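In the design runs reported in the main text, the only information available to the sequence generator was the tokenized backbone. The following block is the verbatim input for one such run; it is reproduced so that readers can re-run the procedure and compare outputs position by position.
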């Protein structure tokens, strides 16, 4: 794939620069843009995942990342902005980001909705200076197979995460290792 060490280093440096641009404030969306994208993402999720619609009625809060960009070539990263909704109203804005290293190549765009099922989980998110997924409240990623078996008696976790709207070619949509931090976009 790479004929010389220099080609590999140049590729990795270019990828690192590209990932920096994705997180750059120059590309930061306004609060109004994030809210509009969150509204659209929630409509898509509820139309394609009936269990997510049911879960939203029980959740204390929903954190929606309508557009997460993931790219990688050996070294990878992902980033996206979203909004925390309580009672249908935005109460805060957040960024999700992660870096990875390993056998990977490609890029994709996808969305995530995290349903916070109790007040303690919501408070942990709001009071932490950055929530590293895998620490704090327990998170269960729900795919279509798991969603089919969800009932009101099986809802025992703190947070349920629904990935949806995947576009592109890259394997895996894991949350492990992701960090969620509060942001303050302009109006």
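Verbatim output:
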């Amino acid at each position: 794939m790479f004929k010389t060490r220099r080609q590999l280093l140049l590729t990795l440096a270019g990828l690192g620069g590209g990932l920096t641009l994705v997180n750059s404030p120059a590309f930061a969306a306004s609060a109004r843009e994030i809210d509009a994208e969150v509204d659209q993402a929630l409509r898509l999720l509820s139309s394609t995942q009936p269990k997510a619609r049911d879960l939203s009625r029980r959740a204390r809060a929903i954190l929606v990342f309508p557009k997460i960009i993931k790219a990688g070539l050996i070294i990878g990263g992902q980033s996206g902005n979203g909004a925390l909704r309580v009672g249908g109203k935005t109460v805060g804005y957040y960024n999700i980001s992660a870096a990875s290293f390993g056998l990977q190549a490609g890029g994709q765009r996808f969305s995530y909705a995290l349903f916070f099922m109790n007040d303690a989980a919501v408070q942990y998110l709001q009071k932490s200076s950055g929530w590293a997924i895998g620490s704090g409240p327990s998170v269960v990623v729900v795919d279509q197979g798991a969603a089919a078996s969800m009932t009101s008696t099986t809802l025992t976790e703190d947070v349920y995460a629904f990935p949806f709207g995947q576009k592109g070619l890259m394997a895996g949509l894991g949350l492990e290792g992701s960090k969620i931090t509060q942001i303050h976009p302009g109006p």
